Amino acid sequence: MGLKAYLNDIVEAVVTTAKGMRITARYGVDPKEEVTLQYPEERWEIPQGYRGFLHNDIKTCTACTMCVKVCPIDCISLESVRGADKKMVLASYDINIGRCMYCGLCVEVCPPKSLKHTSGYEMASVTRGELILNFIAEDAAEIKARVARQVAEATAKAEAQAAAKAEAQAAAKAEAQAVAKAAEVPSSGTAEGEKKE
User: How far apart are CA 11 and CA 7, in angstroms?
Assistant: First the structure.
C-alpha cells in the first residue's frame, strides 16, 4: 500500500464523515425533522391492525377450543365443562404472553370473535408468572363444582318432570279405560234386552 492509497483512504473517511454529520446536523437543528419522542409522556400513534396483547371477552367466548388447537406454540390454555343447558362453560382461560409470538392465528379462527389483539405492548415483570394473563378470576375447581351441582339439579328436575308426566299419562290412560269400560256395559245390556224382545 502506497502513500497515495493511504491519503485517498483518509480523504474518503473525512468526506463520508462530513456527509453523515450533515444529515445529523439537519435532524438536530430542524424542529420539523424531530424523530425522538420523550417516551413515557409521548407515545407513537398505534397503527391500525397492530397486534398487541391478546384479550378474550369471556362473556361471548363459547369455549370451542379453536384458539388452543391453532396456536403453534401452545401459549393459550382453557378448561371447560358442559353446563346444565348443554353449552360449554369456561372454567379457566389463560394466555402466556411471555410465550406468545403475536401471529394472530387465534384471532382469525375465533368463531364468536371474542379473542382480539389490543394496542397494549408494555408489560415489564420481574417473574415469568406475571406474564400469564388469567381471564377468569374464580378458581376452576369451584366453577366445575358449581356447574356439576347445576347439572345434577337440572337432571333431578327433568327426572321429576318425566315421572310426573308418566304418572299423568298413566292416570289419563286408566281414566280412558274406565270410561271405555263404563260405555261398554250399558250398550251390551241394551243389546241383550233387544234380543229378548
Answer: 6
Question: 25 versus 135: which is more confidently predicted?
Answer: 135
Cβ(80)–Cβ(74) below 8 Å: no
| Domain residue limits at 139 | 54-144
Same domain, 18 and 61: no
Which helix (H) or strand (E) is 116 found in, with range?
strand 115-117
Is residue 173 one of the residues assigned to a domain? no
What is the total residue count of the chain? 197
pLDDT tens across 55-81, in order? 999 999 999 999 999 999 999 999 999
For residue 127, give the 3-state DSSP assignment: coil
What DSSP letter does each residue of 12-60 carry, written as one string? Answer: HHHHHHHHHHHHHHHHHH-GGG-----TTT--PPPPTT---SEEE-TTT
pLDDT tens for residues 107-151? 999 999 999 999 888 888 899 889 999 999 888 888 888 888 888
Q: Structurally, how many domains does the chain consist of?
A: 2
CA distance readout (Å), 82 to 90, 108, 148, 150, 168 = 9, 25, 9, 10, 31
The two beta strands, 54-56 and 115-117, are: antiparallel
Longest dimension (CA), the chain: 156
